[in-house]
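Pasting as-is:
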Amino acid sequence: MPFGEHSGRRARLRSYPLLAVTSSRTLSARLTDGLSSAIAQPDHTAHDRKGSAVTHPNRLPGERVEPVASLPFVIFHFVPLLAIFTGIGWHDWMILLVTYWVRVFFITAGYHRYFGHRSYKTSRWFQFVLAFGGSMAVQKGPLWWAGNHRLHHRFSDTVQDAHSPIKGVFFSHVGWILATRADPTPEDVISDFAKFPELRFLNRHDWIGPWLLAVLCLWWGGWSGLVVGFFLSTVMTWHATFLVNSLAHLWGTRRYATADSSRNNFLIALLVMGEGWHNNHHHLQSSCRQGFKWWEIDMSYYVLRVLSWVRIVHDLKAPNPTAMRTALIKDGAYDIGMFRYHWDKATTRVASATQRTDLTDTRVRFSQLADETLAAAEELGRQTRRDPAVATAAADDDDGGRRRRGGRAARARLICCAPGVSHAEALTHRDALIMSPLGGSFLVSPPTAPEM
C-alpha cells in the first residue's frame, strides 16, 4: 500500500527515526509498510531537501515555505495599494468584477470540474478556451492544477495531501504553493489531458494568460484599471479559491460521512460559484452539479447548463440518486472523516510530547492501540454508509434467507430420517408424503437441490 494512503500519524513516525526503527517490528503491517522508507533513509525524515528542519510533524520533505522564492507572491499582494496614487473610479470596479467572476468561472468550471474531474464533455476548441481562461487566474497551468487536485482527492487529509489542514491552516491555504514539493506537474495522474500539445504548451508557458489580461486591463482602464482590475482582482481570486482548500475543511456543515474533513459552506459557495458545497463534492466527485438542494446555489453549474443548451458543452454528469442517499450523517452514518481529523490532531500532540528515550516501548504500544482504534472506527464507518432503507431490506433479505436455508435444511433432515424413503427419492417428487418414525404423516416440499 502506498505511503500516502496511511494516516498522518505515519508522517510523525517518519519525523522521529528512533521511534520508526524501534517500532518497525511491533506495529501492524499497515503501519510498517508506511515506515519502510523512513527506516531506510532516516536522515531525510527530519530534514527537507535543503537540509532545513521540517517544522510540522505532518509535512513531508520539501513541504517548507521558501522565503526567497515567495517574495514575488508577497509583493504582488501590496501592489493594489498603489490605488492610493492612481485613484479608483466606477470604471475600475467594473473591470474588477468582470475579471474576478470570469476567472473564478474558468477555475471552477474549467480547471476543477472539467480538467480535474471530467464531469462534462466539450469540444477541443472550448477545452483550450477553458485552459487559457484558467491560466489568466495566475494559478499555474491546467495540467499542474488539475493533477494536484486529483492527488488531493486520492489522498484527502493524509500526509500525501498537499494542502490538507492537518499540515496547518496557513499551509493548506497558501503555504503549499510556496513549497518546492508542489513545483512539478504530476503528469502521471493527468495523462488523459497531457496528450494534447496545446495544453502542454499552456502548462509550460502559464505566464501568457496573466500578461495578456494585464495588458488588456491597462488598455481598458489605464493604470487604475491595471492596479484594481488585474492585481486586486487576482489577489481576491486567489484567496477566494484557496478558501476551498483551507476553510472548507474547517468551517461549515457535513451532510455526508466522507473519509475527510470537507464541509459545506454557503458563504464560500457564493464567493466561488458553487465550490463551497465541498462535502457534497467529496461525496460525489464526478458530479458536475455540486449544490444538491434547490437552495444550494451553484452558479458554475448554472452557466454550464446554459452552455449545454447551445451544445458548447454536453453530457453534464448529474449526482447519482442512490449515492445521494448513502452515508448520510442524519441517518446514522458514522462520521469517520471527522474522527480521523481529530484523532490525527490528538496523536500528533501525543507523539510530539513523548520523545524521551525511556518512553519508546510506551510509544510503540500507543501506536498499536491507535491503529486498532482507527481500524475499528473505519469498520464502523463502512457498515453505516448504506441507505437505511436499503440496509434494512438487505438485512431482512439476509434474515429471510437464513430462515429459508434453515427451513430447507429442516425439511431435508425430515426427509432423510423418514423410514422407507431415501433423500433422492423425495427429491424426484414435487411433494412427498413422509411417514414419521413416531407415527403420523407430513406433507413436505423438498428443496430444489440437495443442501447436504
